[in-house]
Design goal:
By secondary structure, this protein is mainly alpha-helical. The chain has a single domain, classed as Alpha Horseshoe (Serine Threonine Protein Phosphatase 5, Tetratricopeptide repeat), CATH 1.25.40.340. It is built from nine helices and no strands. Helix 1 runs antiparallel to helix 2 and helix 4 runs antiparallel to helix 5. It is globular, with a radius of gyration of 16 Å. The structure holds adenosine-5'-diphosphate (ADP) and magnesium ion.
């Protein structure tokens, strides 16, 4: 797994830019089935990580990932902060526990399971897990990055017919049906940005 500083700072920047460009649309999705703050929450988190970018780039890759998770917990807020934070913190810890030959898909699986435990949620509950698990499956199948991005976007769209079982949207019951989940959407946007960045800078 590549761990150059440029990778860390490049990934931080593409994630920040993607969320900045989609803040309004994420808030609109959250207005439909939540309280309308998901875009601004995510933007605050990404800007905080970006402000720490220079320091993060000097850390070993697992430490940088864990530190990004901590920053996300402290700055995103809402339900999504602890969940995205757990994802990155667990990923960092798991990367540190394993050697470099480990499959990244296994690292991701551990981290997603930790998110599911944290949110007491599972696949099908209309949350960001409905994008995370399909991405993990695509990685385990060694799908090309472009296909992983497409799978992430399709998985986010597929949350529309689901009924929310967790988080604020679950208060709406059946009225949550027919809307894309905001957390699933931010997750698909970030995945797409990361895949395209890696495709461009680190062709497989
Ligand atoms: P809040 O709901 O506190 O306003 P956000 O709007 O930032 O927080 O995030 C909402 C997103 O968080 C949802 O769209 C969903 O994807 C995710 N989410 C909420 N609760 C849970 C949970 N218990 N487990 C997994 N994901 C959740
Ligand atoms: Mg919200």
């Amino acid at each position: 797994m590549r761990t150059e500083p440029v990778l860390v700072s490049g990934l931080i920047e593409v994630c920040r830019a993607t969320i900045a460009a989609n803040t309004d649309s994420l808030c609109a999705l959250d207005r439909a089935i939540g309280d309308g703050d998901h875009g601004t929450n995510m933007r605050r988190g990404c800007e905080a990580v970006s402000a720490d970018g220079a320091k993060l780039s000097t850390l070993p890759f697992p430490d940088a990932v864990e530190e990004i998770g901590l920053t996300l917990v402290m700055n995103i807020g809402g339900a999504a902060g602890p969940l995205y934070g757990t994802l990155l913190m667990e990923m960092g810890r798991e990367l540190r526990r394993r050697d470099e030959t480990s499959e990244f898909s296994m690292v991701l699986k551990q981290a997603i399971d930790a998110v599911a435990r944290r949110g007491r949620a599972q696949e099908g509950d209309k949350t960001l897990l409905d994008v995370l698990y399909p991405i993990q499956a695509a990685l385990a199948e060694r799908s090309p990055l472009g296909e992983i991005a497409i799978r992430a976007q399709r998985s986010a769209s597929q949350t529309a017919p689901m009924k929310a079982m967790r988080g604020r949207a679950s208060y709406l019951g059946d009225r949550s049906i027919g809307h894309v989940d905001p957390g699933a959407s931010s997750c698909a946007l970030l995945t797409t940005a990361i895949c395209h960045y890696l495709e461009e800078h680190y062709p497989q």
